[in-house]
Structures
1.
Amino acid sequence: MPTETPPLIEVSDVSVRLGGQEVLKHVDLNIHAGEIVTLIGPNGAGKTTLLRVVLGLLNPTRGRVMCRRGVTFGYVPQRFAIDPTLPMTVRRFLSLPKRRSRTDIENALEEVGAGYTIDRELQALSGGEFQRVMLARGLLRRPDVLVLDEPLQGVDVGGQIALFDLIGRLRRAHGFAVLMVSHDLHLVMSSTDHVVCLNHHVCCHGEPEAVSRHPEYRELFGRDAGRALAIYHHAHDHGHDAHGNVVPLNRDGTPQRKTGSERE
Amino acid sequence: MMLEAEFLQRALLAGLGIAVVAGPLGCFVVWRRMAYFGTSLAHNAFLGIALGILLGIDPMFGIAAAAVAVALMLVFLQRQRRLADDTLLGILAHGGMALGLVAISFLEGVRVDLLTYLFGDVLAVGWGDLGWIYGAGAAMLAGLVPLWRPLLMISVHPELAAAEGIPVLPVRLAFMLMLAILVAIAMKVVGILLIVSMLIIPAAAARRFSSTPEAMAVSAVGAGVVAVVGGLFASIQWDLPSGPAMVVCATVLFSLSLVAGEFAKRA
């Protein structure tokens, strides 16, 4: 995405080792003001780790993350359960840790279509309601970047489209950038500016159309994922083994397997 | 009236002081599922007792030191992510306790009445002990005020709290140190084996009647006070060990809260 202004967040050459495993390898990622960037990739590909690095929750082993001065994050973590022994209404939750006025909270909840939940206990919310409350929490922080980790998890299919539309609407109304992890390829492809396909390293990235045609993307998600959009072949130069390591391709386009002699 | 005896007044004051501090701290122990952490602190009291005797100071200070050491060690060990928290706590709890018992056996010429430490002896609480209970208790409650909202946020979701700028590690450490000190000052009242029960049972009993975290903390204090008063009177009336009597009283309160909760649901 060609943009004149420097990015809000610039991740350059970030590698992360966790427990002896290299979870991220030489990852570059830019997030510009107002754009929606979606991370896709198989389970265990390091998507959440990358979010944590961007949020400053985890220091990269190598590389660095530059944020424009004064960037505020809103964060919606993966669906989580709150201990049932903790009495916590939606209003109280949105008023933590900083006190917020009832009007501010009501307005934020109305904007995400969850005004009626204000006096409910958090534990009693459905998946969709919970995510909306989390979005309202993000809005209250007036973020420059809203970071969402699998926002559609635990939301029924009908609700998923509505929630995705809502995220897009909020982005337009408030002008914040969105960085999210998602599994739902069809939804991602239809409502994202920039897709980053991650499998420990950045496999491919670009506009959704281009990524969906990328052979690596199709290799990771299966041919059907690509069939949802037009299939388009173009040159690609590497494949992956089971650990996500980059390996050269065979003539037929399948990744080469390491032979015993090549192993260290 | 039996409260005319000064030792009974002291016992009552000591129990009430502990109940007031244990109420809000206990709520966080329940919300954050730290019961086993409390147990680990208490187990390490044996190490603290040995330390106290060795240095010739009140075991209470030794226990506080041992508990603080366990809290710091846990935070340190959690940085390596290979072993689960409860495994780490198990190692710290039992390793520390065993080390303490071995150390005590080496102390020649000192007869240590372990039973007193295990079950407490609230009737033997002196004015000096009371001073410590109320001094440390007041300091902890004062410290809890600014920590309250950050701690609540961490109880909801630690990563979310960190992403929103709460200094999670210092807040967690402060809370762990408070628990460590509470274990030390509560040891004389209910004893090592039963300290955790004074944290979690009143809080658990308060849950059904509370719609906010603050209400639950206040109700937990109330339940703790009833348990202390009831347990003390029962112990005098029927010559029961006072620490266990208080815990039995708290447990009865918890059971009643379950029954009352069921009725409230049906009504």
2.
Amino acid sequence: MNLIFELTTPERVVAKKEVVGITVPTQAGEITVLPGHIPLVSSLKPGMITLHLLEGQEEYLAVSGGFLEVQPTGRVILLADSAERAEELDLQKVEEARERARRALEEKRDIDEVAATAAISALERELARERTARKYRDLKHRPISN
Amino acid sequence: MGTSTRLIQRRIKSVTNTKKITKAMELVAASKMRKAVSSVLASRPYAEAAWRAIREMAKVTSTELHPLLQTKPGADRILVLLFSSDRGLCGGFNSQMMRGLTKFIDDLGENLTADFITVGRKGQNMIRRRGCNITASFTDLSAHPVVTDIRPMAKLAIDDFTSEKYGAVYLAFTDYVSALVQKPNISQLLPITRIEGLGEVSEALAGIDKAESDVNESLNIGAREYLFEPSPQDVLNVMLPRLVEAQIYQAMLETSAAEHSARMVAMRSATDAATEMIDSLTLSYNRARQAGITAEIAEISSGKSALESNR
């Protein structure tokens, strides 16, 4: 029995596929959901999702927070604020965005608390994207043969 | 062949140019509408999944206690999020919305005043002309709305509602029924009592009693209770604002789809009117031209006969 994974943002359905396992970053730490998991609702933090595909390969996605719902039927629904597939990310652009977020945070840190909080979450989001994009690039450059 | 034919010709030319513009606007509006409609459909699964999770939560935690679900009977002000277009040339789109809104405000009665958050320049102008209070206004969003655009609105609405500044928050948007029909719609956003297209909250909460019997049943076949991390209340605290965001986003997409379809229809009838005008102008042009030719022939032949009779 495999899991049906669905990743949805308010804008679109990012991914929907059958997998054997999913590793997600939750507020309580990183967890891996395997078939037969108990029903669970958990909140996510920005990070990288790893899908363990049927053929033994892995696929990566970046999320910026949201929810995970594991249904008793083996469907795993992820409601994300925003999400991208690794192949959609442009590493260079992501690095630039991360730099912008970092600068914004440094400027606002002691002046504007609201803006600083926004900058922190933007930075977290960009870091998650960057990690995902890097992982994808590394994977592409030296393909694992199995 | 005098001034009249030249005048008609000039008018035909100018109407033809106008027709080209309206035709182009129609096509642009049609493609934008298609995009907006597909966005509306794409945003549905999110709201549905969030809603299902809340139903599950209702079984294990007292969702009634959440501030976003509670009515605030004391407040004498309400907040309306008004969605309108930035530009005109879209038929009765904005005035239709305004008519609906006027009726809604009249029905509120004397002791409730409405403040507004406006989206779109047209709505902002209309509200200002009425002399109502605008707490925030957003413009230039309708071209391609994304979720990050509506986060500030959601935050304003939620903060002002939880601080008991407003007794309720309403969404005033235009429903995209079909390419030809758009319906102004005013629905309650906060406190959350029902979710557009998904049903009443009270129904979901009433599910608690049923859930208890379900639990007893499921104990026999192995517990299928959901586990909530970190806790049901925490999850609910983050989930409900997102559901509010999803609803605002949906309203915005609906409005955008409706605006573009209204513009498309308006531009199509403008193109049709231009075609008709060109036809009738061409007719009078031909008539004038023929009259000119006839007059010329008459002149020539009368001149000729005058010469002949003189000989």
3.
Amino acid sequence: MTPAERNKSSSNSAPKGDPTVAVLLTWILPGAGHLYLGRTVVGLLAFAVLNGMYWLGLKLSAGMTFEWLDPELRSTFAVALSPEAGNLGGLVYQMKTYAFGLGYPRPFPELVRVGSALCAVSGMLNFALMTHAHRVSRVGSRTPAWPAARAVLLTSIVPGLGHFVQGRRARGLCIAFLLLGFFALGTVLADFSNLSRERHFYYWSGQALLGIAPLISEGIWGAKAVTGHLPYVEAGLGFGCVAGLLNILAMIDAYAFEADGQDAQPARHSGASSAGPWGAKDEKSSSGAPTAQGAASEPGAAATRSTAP
Amino acid sequence: MIDPIRHLLLFLVASLVIVALGVCFSERSDRAALRAFPRRFLTFVFGCALFSGIMLICEHTFAKV
């Protein structure tokens, strides 16, 4: 390879764009961050799928999802705590077009729950897309960005699944057991009333971060009537919501494991074998004292990490 | 009347899940996470107990005035 070809190849694989800009663009409009990074096909595909999903959700629900909010809770930023906020463009469109309804009660469409769930899922999937955009802008095409985004995506669908696929099976099973068990306990305590978005709009938003489990449960038991006094309903609502929020920690853990492992790869390939999947940081936990041996002894590794913002 | 024992058990279950996820997040290796868990769990429980105690004292001191 001539020096000119080497330079061209190097510039093609180098990271492009600012990660923060890429993430913000993706948040505002799914796919825009990838277009900014020069990933045209992924950008257009993501735009079509995620916005198509949001649009279909709006059509099925007639844009009435936010009419479930109590009148005293309705304000400009009240919907910012819903999963739809993950797709900001879709959310703004919904608020501009439908907002909180016409101001008087009217019947909900038959598929309002499905439509509402589709809009929410579009927002949550956009978080995984933001992860991918962030990773692409950090590593360019030098390293595949998909594994880190996949880890987040799988964990957002089923808690612990991303860890399981990464080979951290004990941790994945532990996370799945704890979070799904916590959600199940909360559901029993609340006598399934937590599953209805119409009844508990904000608690539903929290537990929706658990992925597919609350959505399936809502499809089966979401319309169950409350027939008596529920002494532990507050605990049940809190448990379900906290389980979903804790899944964010699991997602970050899955992302960091994959990203740090990739960043440390040049060091491992060159014989700095003490760096584990967490790279040079592993040395801190194994020896009890932080060392910079992995980074200092390997210029490639240092160069790789210097691309991080 | 809410059963205090059941209330306490629910609190311990919630603490277990919160601390376990926190440990998974902060510790990279499973072994280090397992080692750190008991201490953090006790710290969390005693911290919450202390906070509850302070809140009860405040309630009895100020809420009756």
4.
Amino acid sequence: MLFNIIQKSFLNQKKAVALMLVSVAAGTAVTASLLTVSYDISGKVSKELRSFGANILIEPKVEGLAGISGQKRFLREEDIVRAKAIFWRHNIIGIAPMLEATVEVKANSRTATYDIIGIWYEKSLPLPGEEKQFTAGTRTVSPWWDIKGQWPDSHEKVIAGASLSERLGIKTGDEIFMNGKRFTVSGTLETGGREDNQIIMELGALQEFMNMPGKISKVLVSALSKPMDEFAYKDPATMTQAEYEKWYCTGYITSIAKQLEEVFRGSRAKPVWNIAETEGKVLNRLTLLIYFLSFLSVLAAALGVSTTMIMSFLRRTHEIGLMKAVGADSGKIITVFISEACLTGLIGGTIGYVLSLIVSQYIGTQVFSARLEQREMLLPIALGSAVLIAVLGTILPIKKALSIKPAIILKGAE
Amino acid sequence: MRSGFYLFFKKSVSRRKGRIVIAALSVTLSVAMVSGIIGMTAGVGAKLGEELRAYGANIIVSPREGNYLAQDVAEKVSRIDSVRGVSGQIFGTSVFRGQPIEIIGLDIAKLKDRGWRLQGKWPQNNGEILAGTDLRSQFKIDIGAKMHLPGGDIGGDFVITGFIERGGTEDSALILDMPDAWTVTGADRQFSAVLVRAEAGRLDEVVQQIRRMIPQAEAKTFRQIAVAEESLLRKIQLLMVIVTVVILCAAVISVAATMGANVLERREEIGLMKALGATKAQINIFYRAEAILTGLTGGVAGFISGYFFTQAVSKGAFGSYVPVPFYIFFISLLFGLVISVTASYLPVRNALKYNPAVILRGE
Amino acid sequence: MSFIILKNIVKEYGPAHALRGVSMEIQKGQWVNIMGPSGSGKSTLLNIIGGLDTPTSGEVFVEGIKINALSEDDLACFRREKTGFVFQQSHLVPYLDAVENVMLAQYFHSMADEEEAVGALTRVGLEHRLKHRPSQLSGGEQQRICIARALTNDPVLLLADEPTGNLDRENTKMILELLKKLHSEEHFTIILVTHDPFVSQWGERVLMMEDGSIKSDAPINP
């Protein structure tokens, strides 16, 4: 019987029902898409913030005066792959080793001493025990590198920094002599940083050229990390055993650095503080921004749906009067109307949820060039809140209608 | 005698308060969401830029020839619009315990909250300096260590008040406040480089301006920071725009549905007016007037709530309030009017199309 | 020439025929009752004569004006200048009181005049109910407001669709007496649709309709 009444009511008032459905769907769509965005915003923004460059620097440990008295210390290239074996290995999204040296450069009959660095530009590393290869190299850490020309495809080719090229008057395709050996410039690089005054070549090529096999001077690491909080700033040396374990197993930039230090023999790893700290702050701010926006928008959407429901049910006071006149008690009337509201909430909520999938994926691909993670939990939440709001929106008009004597309603009163 | 239109309009509004309030509330909410988020989008760039400052300089000015820039370069650059911060620095070397040691001179007061981790105290007086954290283990020195640094004409005696860690080359250098650094390097009132923090999105402009104003200096964008922050700001702005559009659509739909339900209820009234011989224009004006009233009320109320919305978000996310440009008031008013009038236009037009005989016969 | 002339009026609603070629004439000042079972097309006929509905084919002349050829605004003008309607459901604006409901019709006609509206309500015996809203009035009183509203602009044609359909016998009689008094004093033409044999006894002529056509057309002998 109840089903019959609702079916009739829906079919006979197509327009009114359509209006409610559209409103509920729109409200749910906004709510669900913003919730999806908020849920994933932190992950997406942290990835985004990684484009500011490495946040961990691994260098050889220096003890005593030996470090600066010319006996340079090095890290071992073979240790690099071990970085992907630490507890937080999945948070490591970029590794860039670097070997530094100085050379005498002769070009266009000018001679000067310059820094030279050997790097991996983009290199696939096979990981022990895993099928997937890991892409390492400067590109994964410093995406702002903009090479004009070609990355060297042989050991006889180099990239020249922009300022250096200008000073020596060389360009892509020119030949230069380094420590007497002939090289071809395959491209130039401008970053605004110190690379502009350096010669850049493939790590293996520089190791061979300088006769420093397997040696690297430092490693830049880009790692996703949990923003530093008060606990994270505690000195690990003063922590209790339990605190230390908690710290070690939390993805702070300091604990990731600590773990890297453990796998690189003879190393010292430290956060690049301006990058790491700012990243944490910006991440917190943006996440909060989206949370607040979502919360307030959801609130407004809920109220918006309520106004539609109130307006739609107000016009049915007449119907309520009629039902009362034919002897329906308040309980029955409420059941009919609440069931209608639930059905509206369910149908509208489902449509809205589907719409939100489209909207949130549009936001994901347009803004972050990646899909946003969908939560299955969101469907029941979206439907539940849609039904709740729809029902809340009907309570006021029903209460009002029930309080009026049927005779008065039927005469056209409101 | 009173004008007929005004009389009926007044009665319709005063005796249907509940519905008018709900319709106006619906417009208010929509306007609040939209004007609030527009206000937020306008302010978020500036707020975020403030945060991104901590990443460091995005333009580097260095001498084109020779080793130093005159002190007034920093002043000139700081006067350029969209330059938010300028820091003149000097780099040199000195000798400590027979070892060469790098010296960085800068305005130490500017380092606070800029991503430098300090153990110890910030220097307060002349002669107090900071040391990079690597030097601690290299030279086995501690806070309070005294060092004599030769350089310039006389050199100087210094005390280390703290060790600093940044995760860069600074970690193996001594950090001196400006006058001290000038004494040690002998490059009085000059800078090796001027680091500039300019508003993201105007970097090219600023670089061009510096090149024009100071021909002896070379200005370059520091791509590490510049590229990343421009892309980040662009993405956040894009996100805000998409969210604005989505919310805008939902807001319009919500108002349209509310107003639509309102007019649906009055179809009988419209049919009656037609039967009484009212022309379409005569009927339209009643509903148009009500929509305008609702729109204006909702627009004003929406602007006010939107203002608080913006401030709540800004305070919550950035810890400070954001200036809301006044033009948003007019946008709110206009938006309130437009959605309210459009939302009632369609259902009224639809009701007018119906044969009054059909509407009046009832269900 | 007759006051109202219908020539072969056909009205189709989709596949259904509401009127299948109705032709007739009504003289000025005549009171005509239209009777018939529900669905026979009597309301449709009334609405077409009053310009509330338009025929699918055929011609309608009222006072020599061919109203089926009028534009929508001219038709609205025709309704407010020439006709007054009374419906079964009273169709009063719920948020306006009795005087204001009458004034609304005046407003659409020319200008609202409170004095005239009060006069119209006095003529139907409602001078003590001027400031009451429809919800505070009985069915008979509501219908009387409708009659006052229908007559306030001095129409030549009063159209009533089951005006007493919701009323008890006593109220029905009161309404009919009122119509009779106004008709004899002011000589406008009345067309009244009813299925109540009691009501059809009033007036001067009865049309019986069935299945979209006129079955019989006879004068009433008083």
